[in-house]
Amino acid sequence: EIVLTQSPATLSLSPGERATLSCRASQSVNGYLAWYQQRPGQAPRLLIYDASNRATGIPARFSGSGSGTDFTLTISSLEPEDFAIYYCQQRSNWPPTFGQGTRLDIK
Amino acid sequence: QVQLQQSGPTLLKPSETLSVTCTVSGASINNHYWSWIRQSPGRGLEWIGYVYHIGSTIDNPSLKSRATISTDTSKNQFSLTLTSVTAADTAVYYCARGKGAASAIMEFWGQGTRVTVSS
């Protein structure tokens, strides 16, 4: 199965700053990569699918990029509600797999 | 508005059978892909399987055929059954719906069901 490695494990930033989160796959996922946000006590929430498509209702400050094995989630200007854990997930190969997550903390 | 409502928390002993149900409103389970995913501190997020076209299911080989996903169209529900549980099956279990024709883009999620396996 495809292993997804996210970095950094923890990112400490202030509101208004730009956040860049990375996800690297053990083999090409052909662009079939999604990003989810999870707040404490809540289910994951779909942000980005197929590398760069924003899900319905997701603010424009969230953007995704990348191809092959290397992908990036960028949050252009952090809002207080953006401090959460972010997961990447691939659907190129069965079974779908998730990264271990990046925790975005308030500095 | 699509909503997924899951059954309540469960405490099980090793070797018992886990059963969790997801009731869907705002969409028909005759359409889309309906998945189960679990999350634990040790294993992170793990795909269990999905059901589609009512009666067709695919599950994660890592569960060694212990998982069964079934549907009840009269109640617009789908369920997960996991046999022979161990402490390693302790997790929060989520149901989710796929986006459009994509099985593995989870657009809508249930609130989660905490399952604890302990002797």
Write the layout of secondary structure elements.
The complex is a heterodimer of chains A (107) and B (119).
Chain A: E1 4-7, E2 10-13, E3 19-25, E4 33-38, E5 45-49, E6 53-54, E7 62-67, E8 70-75, E9 85-90, E10 97-98, E11 102-106
Parallel strand pairs in A: 2-11
Antiparallel strand pairs in A: 1-3, 3-8, 4-5, 4-9, 5-6, 7-8, 9-10, 9-11
Chain B: E1 3-6, E2 10-12, E3 18-25, E4 33-40, E5 44-52, E6 56-59, E7 67-72, E8 77-82, E9 91-98, E10 106-109, E11 113-117
Parallel strand pairs in B: 2-11
Antiparallel strand pairs in B: 1-3, 3-8, 4-5, 4-9, 5-6, 7-8, 9-10, 9-11
Written description of the protein model:
The complex is a heterodimer of chains A (107) and B (119). Chain A is built from no helices and 11 strands. Chain A has strands at 4-7, 10-13, 19-25, 33-38, 45-49, 53-54, 62-67, 70-75, 85-90, 97-98, 102-106. The mean pLDDT of chain A is 97. Chain A is mostly beta strands and 107 residues long. The radius of gyration of chain A is 13 Å and the shape is globular. With 119 residues, chain B is mostly beta strands. Chain B is 0% helix and 55% strand. Chain B contains no helices and 11 strands. Chain B has strands at 3-6, 10-12, 18-25, 33-40, 44-52, 56-59, 67-72, 77-82, 91-98, 106-109, 113-117. In chain B, the strands form 2 sheets. In chain B, strands 2, 4, 5, 6, 9, 10 and 11 form a 7-stranded mixed sheet that branches. Chain B has a 4-stranded antiparallel sheet with strand order 1-3-8-7, with no helix packed on it. In chain B, strand 5 and strand 6 form a beta hairpin. Chain B is globular. The N and C termini of chain B lie far apart (40 Å). Chains A and B meet through strand 5 and strand 10 of A and strand 5 and strand 10 of B.
